[in-house]
Amino acid sequence: MVRILCHECSREISHQEPACPECGAPTTEGPFERHYESGQLMTRGTYTNGVRHGLYEEYYESGQLKEKCYFETGNEHGPFESYYENGQLEGKYNFNNGDPRGDGFFEHYNERGELVAMGSYHASRKCGEWFAKGAGWSGRDKVTHYPPCPESQD
Question: Residue 152 pLDDT more than 70?
């Protein structure tokens, strides 16, 4: 019997197993789901060529969406959203080949839905105007200016 390492939890498993008995990750291709002991959905996504690809979602045990992102050939790539357990949006930003500071807009909120930080990235660097609520040593809102963001190439 051939043994392989699970690409999710690194447990040694039989290559004949359709999914890892520890974490539920498929050993082959296609969609997968992992569940909490309660049976509630924990994560779901798809594997292509042995790596995550496409939409990936993670949930709190309560069933509330925790994170939603996209993968391209194993790396987070594209829009990312995270949520508090109360359902309130926590943050939005854009991954670029695994880098959370990819090109695009960044927003972060507190559990009450109040914007606490926002700005833009280009080539993994801050650009344009950034706002942070209560970020200064005095607890006042802070606005910082970085080099301008390039114009969209649309």
Answer: no
Half-sphere exposure of residue 33, counting CA atoms within 13 Å on the CB side? Answer: 7
The mean pLDDT of 140-145, rounded to a whole number, is 91
DSSP, residue by residue, 44-95: EEEEETTEE-EEEEEE-TTS-EEEEEEEETTEE-EEEEEE-TTS-EEEEEEE
Sequence-separated (6 or more) residues with CB below 8 Å from residue 49: 29, 73
**pLDDT per residue over 15-74, tens digit each?**
667 778 888 777 667 888 888 999 999 999 998 877 789 999 999 999 999 999 999 988
Among residues 19, 62, 21, 22, the alpha carbon closest in space to that of 42 is found at 62
- The token pair at 21 is 């008995």
